[in-house]
Amino acid sequence: MRTSHLPTPPERPVPSDATDPSVDDALLLQIEREYREMPGLCLTARQAGRLWQLTPPHAAALLDHLVEVAVLMRTPQGAYGLRTSRP
């Protein structure tokens, strides 16, 4: 049997769909920071899920929460972007 001498790939982060509330708090903070660092960022829940390794429903729930607290806004096309003014 031949063994491979290829380096072991780095561990991939576990998708962040855990039920631990502190995970969601950390994700919310990370998502908000990334939107503030890139004010033109506009993502659908599916795109956000791919970016942050979440399921689309989990990504949508986090993004919807940020809409509720007036950090993000949702476009008529269903994408999420940074809210430029507070209500």
At a glance:
The chain has 87 residues and is mostly helical.
Write the layout of secondary structure elements.
Blueprint (H helix, E strand, L loop, with lengths): L20 H17 L4 E2 L1 H8 L3 H13 L3 E3 L5 E3 L5
Antiparallel strand pairs: 1-3, 2-3
Helix pairs in contact: 2-3
Describe this structure in words.
- The protein is 44% helix and 9% strand.
- The chain has 87 residues and is mainly α.
- The chain has a domain at 43-87.
- It has a 3-stranded antiparallel β-sheet.
- Helix 2 crosses helix 3 (56-68).
- The protein is globular, with a radius of gyration of 16 Å.
Q: SSE order in H/E notation?
A: HEHHEE
Uncertain runs: 9-19
Bulk shape: globular
Biggest sheet character: 3 strands, antiparallel
- Quick one: how many beta strands? 3
Structural class: mainly alpha
Distance between the termini: 66 Å
Give the fraction of residues assigned to helices.
40-55%
Radius of gyration: 16 Å
Strand percentage lies at 5-15%
Please supply descriptive tags for the structure shown above.
3 strands; 87 residues; 9% strand; mainly alpha; three-stranded antiparallel beta sheet; 3 helices
